[in-house]
Amino acid sequence: MNPLDPFDSNIQLLQKVLDLRSTNQRIIATNIANAETPGFARKVFTFEEQLQNAITAKPGTLATTHSKHISTAPTSVSSVTGRVDEVEDKTGIGDENGVSVDMEMVALSENELLYETAAQLLNKKFTLLKYMIQEGK
């Protein structure tokens, strides 16, 4: 850890993960709330691949300078926004709503567990910073 930059890249990464997990939580909750709504298309939020690409991005990677440029990949963790996709109904029930409350509850539990893990890691980083500020006392 660089003492001159206490908020290192790991803290920024964990903050971003918490933001993205929070967004995922809202989307899953929306799916559950609309489980009985005819015609509602289930939504899935993905960000893991974008985040992985941002973490492994090398300096000199092409950046977009205009809104109409096609981005190749996020060049920094802060630029990762995730992606929301609609999932086509394949249940065949006829109401064109493919939301399974059981599957959404599993996704909700997984997301919550990963959120808590990131929050605990961030808490450990801040505890370490506090220890350093107090000169190990």
TrEMBL record:
Cellular location(s): Bacterial flagellum basal body
Gene Ontology biological process terms, A to Z: bacterial-type flagellum-dependent cell motility
Keyword annotations from UniProtKB, A to Z: Bacterial flagellum, Cell projection, Cilium, Flagellum
GO CC, one annotated term: bacterial-type flagellum basal body, rod
Secretion signal, residue range per the UniProt entry: none
Superkingdom of origin: Bacteria
The protein's assembly and partners: The basal body constitutes a major portion of the flagellar organelle and consists of a number of rings mounted on a central rod.
Similarity-based family: Belongs to the flagella basal body rod proteins family.
Function according to Swiss-Prot or TrEMBL: Structural component of flagellum, the bacterial motility apparatus. Part of the rod structure of flagellar basal body.
Name of this chain's protein: Flagellar basal body rod protein FlgB
